[in-house]
Design brief:
mainly beta, rod-shaped, Immunoglobulin-like, seven-stranded mixed sheet, 311 residues, 2 helices
């Protein structure tokens, strides 16, 4: 014989199970990738993979809601899809980007114009779907059944890569630094517009001997710039604009001077040192040159260099 307590317990468990089943749903967030796919890489269609952008990139997103529960009671007509609706919200890093209008039914896609050409920047993207049913009560037509959260799509930032030219000569890494020979009075125009994925960049100038890495410590300055790297940057103007140096190392009399030619007639002790470096004595009398460097640090420090000599 079943006792009353056992029967009540089974009824309670059944109601809890049925309620949980009735409130199950799936929300899927996807982005469109037109590129062909390869093993381990989603492409050529709608994807839920993470992806990277340079700084920002227009992307098409869509959100799918699927109600996977059973019968829902309490509506005027449970067989009428118009008695159910879902509302979709779209987020980046928890901040709402798009709040959609409701769509009738128990499932469907939301590829609406509001999710087309979204400017994707680094962050975490997600969506929620709130499922509602229509009530047969005057003044209270809709009631929330449940709200579900989608998968997460993480958008990362592509690494920045410095690239630049001076008067048309391309910079290189430390293995093969080119030398640009100019005449006194020639403009020194730096074009860093080919630098990729940088939101900021650094220009550094150092006086050296014939070897680009042998610094005199007489004259060094650097400066940070925010925004995409520019073109036709007048290096001689930057040299004289000492008020905006990020830092300066060298002889006080040289601060704010332009780059000029001639031979090295003096050397300075490196910062943090008490004596000259062993190589520095050999710099006296050498032709004065300048190492010009452009650097980025997103996410790691990367550099390109050109050595400039002025005759």
């Amino acid at each position: 014989m079943w006792n009353p307590l056992t029967i009540l317990t089974f009824i309670w468990l059944f109601l809890i199970s049925n309620s949980a089943h009735a409130q199950s749903g799936v929300v899927q967030l996807e982005h469109y990738n037109p590129l062909p796919g390869s093993p381990g890489f989603c492409g050529g269609g709608w994807c839920r993979d993470n992806f990277d952008v340079c700084l920002a990139k227009p992307k098409n997103f869509r959100i799918q809601f699927i109600y996977t529960g059973g019968h829902i009671s309490g509506t005027c007509n449970a067989n009428n899809p118009n008695n159910f609706r879902f509302k979709i919200n779209f987020y980046r890093d928890g901040q709402q980007l798009v709040a959609t209008s409701s769509a009738n039914g128990t499932s469907g896609f939301y590829p609406a114009p509001g999710l087309t050409n979204i400017l994707a920047v680094p962050g975490q993207y997600s969506a929620t779907a709130t499922f509602e049913k229509r009530l047969c009560k005057f003044g209270q037509p809709w009631q929330v059944v449940n709200t579900w959260t989608s998968n997460k799509i993480n958008v990362g930032k592509q690494a920045a890569t410095p690239n630049f030219t001076i008067n048309g000569v391309a910079a290189s890494d430390d293995t093969n630094v080119p030398t640009l020979s100019l005449n006194n009075g020639d403009p020194i125009l730096l074009d860093a517009s080919s630098t990729k994925c940088a939101s900021a960049y650094n220009i550094w100038v150092s006086e050296t001997g014939i070897n680009w890495w042998e610094r005199t410590y007489n004259y060094e300055w650097e400066r940070w710039f925010n925004g995409p790297p520019g073109s036709a940057i007048n290096l001689q103007y930057l040299a004289t604009d000492s008020a905006n140096y990020g830092s300066f190392t060298g002889l006080p009399s040289r601060k704010g001077q332009i780059l000029f030619g001639g031979n090295i007639y003096g050397i300075s002790i490196a910062p943090g040192q008490s004596v000259l470096q062993p190589y520095q004595q050999g710099l006296l009398g050498q032709q004065r040159r300048y190492t010009v460097q452009v650097a980025t640090n997103e996410p790691t420090w990367k550099t390109k260099k050109i050595q400039v000599v002025i005759n």
